[in-house]
């Protein structure tokens, strides 16, 4: 079944989604995508329903055919300052602010969203927040929107693939955590590595990094 193109036809809508919210390490990434009217791709879907090869094949199609797209991130250190929920929304705003075409409306994956004035940006260095000229844009939250709307699905794919690339680069610096396999998610092997080596500078210190008991005997 093809995903819906717009919430309201004729309006410039940007779909927004994040990747890496449940990870123990690495940045959280977000993407914003404005697709042209008439865009179609039968494979396009929520990134979680696609395999790595499918996501990789869709990414250049989205980046080449989108009217505008942008990807942004919030570092592990910033996550520790403002918490992961706020960081996810900040990553979305950073992506939206980079779009070459300003959207009239945002489609946000999930059940809530914070505008910039609701975010604790005072806890971050000024250079790490948002451009001074950035203005809030009207939005709608769409539960499981990455499986309903093309633009959100496209954003989910860009956020996921760009974050995975980042984790592969970080894996080269910290191979002991096997981020090439777990991408920073809390697998048993990742937690065992944390017990053995301790956290890296890329780990989110505000998260529960270690479990006292990794296995039940």
Defining key terms:
disordered C terminus, 6 helices, 5-stranded mixed beta sheet, 34% helix, alpha/beta
In a nutshell, what does this entry contain?
The protein has helices spanning 52-65, 76-82, 84-98, 150-173, 179-182, 188-197; strands at residues 13-19, 28-34, 68-74, 105-109, 139-142. With 217 residues, the chain is of the alpha/beta class. Helix 1 crosses helix 4 (150-173) and helix 2 (76-82) packs across helix 3.
Describe the structure.
It contains six helices and five strands, in the order ββαβααββααα. The chain has helices spanning 52-65, 76-82, 84-98, 150-173, 179-182, 188-197; strands at residues 13-19, 28-34, 68-74, 105-109, 139-142. A five-stranded mixed β-sheet has the order 3-2-1-4-5, with helices on both faces. β1 and β2 (28-34) form a beta hairpin. The termini are far apart.
Number of domains: 1
* Radius of gyration of CA atoms, rounded to a whole number: 18 Å
How far the N terminus sits from the C terminus, by CA atoms, comes to 46 Å
Beta-strand percentage? 5-15%
Q: What's the architecture in CATH terms? A: 2-Layer Sandwich
Secondary structure blueprint with pairings:
Layout lengths: L12 E7 L8 E7 L17 H14 L2 E7 L1 H7 L1 H15 L6 E5 L29 E4 L7 H24 L5 H4 L5 H10 L20
Parallel strand pairs: 1-4, 4-5
Antiparallel strand pairs: 1-2, 2-3
Helix pairs in contact: 1-4, 2-3
